[in-house]
Automatic annotation (TrEMBL):
It holds the Pfam family 4HBT. It comes from Marinoscillum luteum. The keyword Hydrolase applies. Residues 53-130 form the Thioesterase domain. This is PaaI family thioesterase. It is an enzyme of class 3 (hydrolase). The keyword Nucleotidyltransferase does not apply. One of its GO terms (molecular function) is hydrolase activity. Keywords: Hydrolase.
Length: 160
């Protein structure tokens, strides 16, 4: 079954972390698995911090972009509509707090799992874990803020 990746519903997105239109980007792809948003990401040697370990800033970017997509998808889900429907929403990071528990290997798939814990107005609060081979390497609390709503910005594209 083909996964419905949140980021495929964000045309012209040039973000380094999640933008499909950024050739040099990380290309985070997130999807629903029950109540959790999941992303499995395969690194490359150029993203090393130390040899064979993922750079912490790259890991934070992965978590950040995974959670911004999750906040968007959650808003659509709460409204009972598809990711292709209007109005279009986009989110930006309000805060991100990453706790690095142990070094993240750079030579195995990294799995991110995010859960929405609270929605209040334009703010969505999430928790996220990063794990490799089932072992948690980082946890995060992320607050996303809705910064774009096409119903109030007629014709504007948030990615230009």
């Amino acid at each position: 079954m083909k996964k419905d990746y949140f980021q495929q519903h964000m045309p012209e997105n040039v973000c380094f972390g999640c933008g499909e239109s950024n050739e040099e980007g990380l290309h985070v792809q997130s999807y629903w698995e029950g109540e959790e948003a999941v992303c499995t990401w395969n690194s490359q040697e150029k993203y090393h911090g130390w040899a064979n370990l993922l750079n912490g800033g790259i890991l934070a970017t992965l978590i950040d972009c995974h959670c911004m997509g999750t906040a968007m998808a959650d808003a659509y889900r709460r409204e009972g509509r598809s990711l292709d429907s209007a109005p279009t929403y986009r989110y930006a990071t309000g805060t991100i707090t990453v706790k690095y528990i142990k070094p993240t290997p750079n030579d195995h798939p990294i799995e991110l799992r995010a859960q929405v814990t609270e929605v209040k107005g334009k703010k969505t609060v999430m928790t996220c874990t990063a794990q490799v081979n089932g072992e948690v390497t980082a946890t995060a609390e992320v607050i996303a803020i809705r910064v774009f709503d096409s119903s109030t910005h007629h014709g504007a594209n948030p990615f230009k």
